[in-house]
Specification:
InterPro entries: NT_sf. The chain is α+β, with helices and mostly antiparallel strands and 149 residues long. It is built from six helices and six strands, in the order αβαβαββαββαα. It has a single domain, classed as Beta Polymerase, domain 2 (2-Layer Sandwich), CATH 3.30.460.
């Protein structure tokens, strides 16, 4: 995991923000690695958590001129920082999964010395199937085979 990714996660922890790692890095934490150009972070889309996410982004020195705190509790917002392969995507929703359900069944993995919350395998599978992109369908195939590992 690159330094910017680790620093962004550290700032979210420092702000006590509620978030889940999703996407290819979550998949990799379960043992299936594939190329990706970004780190996907799903944040709880509530007004209280949005303030914490905003604080973390400011501490990270993200370019927040064109976003507001309200954006982080608005559905379907994707805030991107940087460019691939080091881009960070902050998401307020993902396909096929509700945050509260995912939060209640979250798992933890140690990444770059941080104990990071991530989607459970069943929720990651639901998300991959709902998004329907070819690379996500491939990921879903691996998850189906390894769901109980």
């Amino acid at each position: 995991m690159n330094q910017d990714f680790s620093e962004m996660l550290s700032e979210l922890f420092a702000a006590d923000a509620e978030f889940l790692l999703v996407g290819a890095y979550a998949l990799s934490a379960y043992g299936f690695s594939r190329a990706t150009g970004d780190l996907d972070i799903w944040v709880r889309p509530t007004p209280e958590n949005a303030v914490k996410v905003w604080q973390a982004l400011k501490a990270f020195q993200a370019p927040v001129r064109n976003v507001t705190v309200e954006d982080f509790h608005t559905p379907d917002v994707v805030f991107q920082i940087g460019v691939e392969p080091g881009r960070i995507d902050i998401l307020t929703s993902i396909s096929g999964v509700e945050f509260d359900d995912a939060w209640n069944e979250r798992k933890y993995r140690t990444l770059s010395g941080l104990n990071v919350p991530l989607l459970s395998k069943p929720h990651l599978l639901a998300n991959k199937l709902a998004s329907g992109r070819p690379k996500d369908i491939g990921d879903a195939g691996w998850l189906k085979k390894n769901l109980n590992d």
